[in-house]
Amino acid sequence: MWPFFFWAFVVGGSICVIGQLLMDVGKLTPAHTLSTLVVSGAVLELFGLYEPLIDFAGAGATIPITSFGNALLHGAMQEAEKHGVIGVLTGMFEVTSSGISAAIIFGFIGALIFKPKG
User: Fold this and answer.
1) Residue 54: which of 85, 87, 11, 97 has the closest Cα?
2) Regions of the chain short of the pLDDT cut 70
3) Which of 4, 73, 96, 111 could bond to 45 as cystine, CB 3.0-4.6 Å?
4) Which residues cross the membrane (predicted)?
5) Direct distance between the N- and C-terminal alpha carbons of the chain, in angstroms, rounded to an integer
């Protein structure tokens, strides 16, 4: 069990280090860094490399933002096989809607509970 935690920490931390290096060394804005990491996850999924990474690192690969790119492409490809071109659009929304909805709901609840600094 401990090796699994170790590799999740190493893989997740490595993704975060790459993002930090893009901002510090590459002088990319946070928005450009975010976009780069999402696209990187989609490209890794395109070549069939992200699912093995998830199997190897678990949450170390599913928690970082690269997993969002993976989910977008994975859902689009799955639904495209079933429904054709329209499945590309519906698949992206179908797979990612629960995560996006949870982020919105929990963000709203957090805004109701906590006071912003003024």
Assistant:
1) 11
2) 118
3) 73
4) 6-23, 30-50, 85-114
5) 45
CA dist., res. 80 & res. 95, Å (int):
13
> Residue 101: what residue type?
S
CA angle 62, 80, 102 (to 5 degrees): 35
Of the candidates 13, 36, 14, 12, the one whose C-alpha atom is nearest the C-alpha of residue 23 is 36
- Looking at residue 51, its pLDDT comes to 94
- Per the listing, tokens 């790459």 go with 18
Place of tokens 């190493």: 10
Alpha helix stretches (DSSP H) within 30-65: 30-46, 50-57, 59-62
Q: With contact defined as beta carbons under 8 Å apart, do 34 and 42 qualify?
A: no
**Six-digit token string for 76:** 């689009």
For tokens 């790119």, what's the residue? Answer: 69
**Do 8 and 59 form a contact (C-beta atoms < 8 A)?**
yes
pLDDT of residue 118: 65
Q: Where are the domains of the chain?
A: 2-113
Tokens read off for 91: 């698949």
